[in-house]
């Protein structure tokens, strides 16, 4: 094979530079898709190492299973549905998630905020995300039994009501299989231990997985394909 002339080399380099410029102008690739977690202390790894929390474990599982998603944990200890609603627009603008996981309401219940107000806030959060084409997963939480059977049952029911009204999937109880076991709860009886976090993820995963989508194929633009034509590089 004859060696390439200086002119041919320059032409090839020029074409490769064009291809690189075209690729850099492509929309964000699939590996930049974000899952945003809007939660409170149960998702903020309260009282344990941040990397041991269920949200961090979710990110690790997605990476291990080759799902092209990054997880953004926007959870704040002590947050309420009202607080989450107030900060959600800025979070959506910043991270552009394709999936929103909502885990809020526990602090509302502990503070005795009216159930109708909690329900309204959750509904607004869901609709705000859906209006932008974002898939939403709602996570229900429970209140300690000392709040009374009637109130705790009505509180638990509001998550089902919101999920049904908005036609979104629901994890009924984030702490299912955990809250009943004192060894998996921190001394305050509200927050799960590090050892409980894999169980929390196990509760979330079956409802989250159907919302995940394979990496989409992003074809090269015609101009890039034209520049890479080996017959034109001779």
Automatic annotation (TrEMBL):
One of its GO terms (molecular function) is phosphatidylcholine lysophospholipase activity. SUPFAM superfamilies: SGNH hydrolase. Residues 37-196 form the SGNH hydrolase-type esterase domain. It holds the Pfam family Lipase_GDSL_2. It comes from the Bacteria. Residues 215-234 are annotated as: Disordered. This is Probable esterase signal peptide protein.
């Amino acid at each position: 094979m004859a060696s390439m002339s200086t002119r041919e080399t320059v032409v090839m380099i020029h074409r490769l530079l064009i291809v690189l410029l075209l690729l850099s102008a492509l929309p964000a690739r699939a590996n930049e898709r974000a899952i945003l977690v809007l939660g409170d202390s149960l998702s903020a790894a309260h009282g344990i190492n941040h990397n041991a929390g269920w949200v961090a474990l979710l990110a690790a599982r997605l990476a291990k299973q080759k799902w092209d998603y990054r997880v953004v944990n926007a959870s704040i200890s002590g947050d309420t549905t009202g607080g989450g609603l107030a900060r959600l627009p800025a979070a959506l603008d910043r991270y552009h998630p394709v999936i929103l996981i909502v885990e809020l309401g526990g602090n509302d219940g502990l503070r005795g905020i009216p159930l109708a107000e909690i329900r309204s806030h959750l509904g607004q959060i869901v609709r705000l995300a859906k209006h932008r084409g974002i898939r939403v997963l709602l996570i229900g939480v429970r209140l300690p039994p000392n709040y009374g059977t009637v109130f705790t049952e009505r509180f638990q029911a509001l998550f089902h009501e919101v999920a049904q009204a908005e036609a979104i999937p629901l994890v009924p109880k984030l702490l299912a299989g955990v809250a009943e076991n004192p060894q998996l709860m921190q001394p305050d009886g509200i927050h799960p231990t590090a050892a409980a976090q894999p169980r929390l993820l196990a509760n979330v995963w079956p409802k989250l997985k159907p919302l995940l989508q394979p990496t989409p194929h992003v074809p090269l633009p015609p101009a890039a394909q034209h520049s890479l034509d080996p017959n034109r590089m001779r």
